[in-house]
Structure formats: C-alpha cells, structure tokens
Please model this.
Amino acid sequence: MNYRHAYHAGNFADVLKHIVLCRVVAHLQAKDGPLFLLDSHAGIGRYDLAGEEAQKTGEADGGIRRLLAEPELPAMLADYVRAIELLNPGDGPLADRLRWYPGSPRFLRTMMRPGDRLAACELHPADAETLEAEFFRDRQVKTQAMDGYLAVKAMLPPAERRGFIVVDPPFEKRDEFAAMAKGLIAAYRRFATGVYALWYPVKGRRPVDAFHADLAASGTRKILVAELMIHQGEDPERFNGCGLVLVNPPWKLDEELRELLPFLARVLRADPVSTAPLRWRVDWLVGE
Model:
C-alpha cells in the first residue's frame, strides 16, 4: 500500500485518526503537568485539498467534507473542528471555505498548552523541509529529518515523564506491521507509562490479526483497539477501513469511542445510503 499522504488528506482514515488524537490530548491535559508529544511520521503539517494530489483522488469528499455536511456534530469533536477552522479562517460555514486540512502535527500543535512541547519527525527529504517551514520559529515544536522508529527510541523517556506518542507510517513497506510492533515493544520498555497511538490500514484481515497477536504476546498492558470499516466484505485488494491501537489510553476514552464510532461509521461508510450493518469495533486487546 502506497500511502503518500497528499493523495489521501482528509479522507475517512484521517477523520478517525485525528479525532482520536485530539481526544487523547484533551484527556491528558486534564492534569496540569507539561506534556511531551511525539509524532514519528509527521508528514508536512498541512495539506491543500485544492491541490493536484488531493483532487486526483477526491478522498476528502468521503471524509472531512461529508462530516462537515452533517447538520449536528457530537460535542467531543469540538477540538478537532477548531483545528481545521484555524487553517481556514473566514465567515460562513466551514464546509464552504474548507481548503487546508491539518496533518497530525498541526492538530497536536493546536491542542498544546504553553508548557507542552512537540517533536515532529519526517524521513522523506522534501517533506521534512516542508514540515520545518510549517513550524519555523515555533519554540514549542522541534522538527527532525529522521526515521520515525529511531526517533521513538532516541526521544524516550521524555524529561516531562508524561508523553503521547503517535506512530502513523505510510505503509509503503511490506513489513510495516512488524516494524510497528517491534518499535512499540522497544518504546514500551523504555517508557511503559507513555500513551501510544498506532494507526494502520485494514485491507486483508490476516496482517492485522497477526499484528494484534504480536502485541498481545509482547507483555504490553492496557491495549485498546478501535477500528472503522467503510466497506462491506474483506476484499484484500481494497482499503476497507482503518484502525488505531491505543496503549495506556486515558480513562473512559473507550466509552467515548463506543459512542463516537457508530456515528462515524454511519457518516463515512462508502455507500451512504446502504442499510447494511455498520462496521466498527472498540475492544480491549489486553487489559490491566
């Protein structure tokens, strides 16, 4: 799977992922202490939905644009929508002026308080330059042109002793699931109290199930899985859905996601008029 993000910005997977990231940070900020945020595969920070890449696929039409067309959004989406509004200022409905869609580091930056800090890493040379320009002179953000898995090893544990680590690779390599599992296991050994979010696509079930099995057998505790499927069936050649593995998720986040996922499954399903059962899950892979 080639997931160069400019072609897919604002799609259903982005909507799920970024809403969850915003909710995690909001929960963590219920405590006053400073928070370290690490985005291991940060991309470029923002994406032009009017650009050639996004226009070629049109995936935002089935993602953020469809979401913003809803007459009423759940209150827990307020931080997510606010981050998009900040990149698209103006009057009138946000859906009418939407052009720029934030990447993960821009969502995280919008959520940050004065004492928080963000490390955003990107290996692709051109994207790393764009990312650096996005946060130029921002003293709370440090961009790094480096491999995300190396960053996870090098930057943990953080001085703050409280951290949220986002791992969102492009899945251009066949062994990406194995690399994610290996990276998480190594990071958890260094920083077992950190909160981790690992995003993954769902095509065929076998690689996903193997990934989950590796994590369950690793000794890592408190692993929550949230998945959203937009297609019926399990065509291994199709982008059927996506998921997030959340390690040490904040208290009651699982309850929020069980409330939110049915709404997203209804709004973002590939066939919006389908009467087939909604496809989503929020399950504990490993408990305490």
User: Anything to note?
Assistant: The chain has a mean pLDDT of 95.
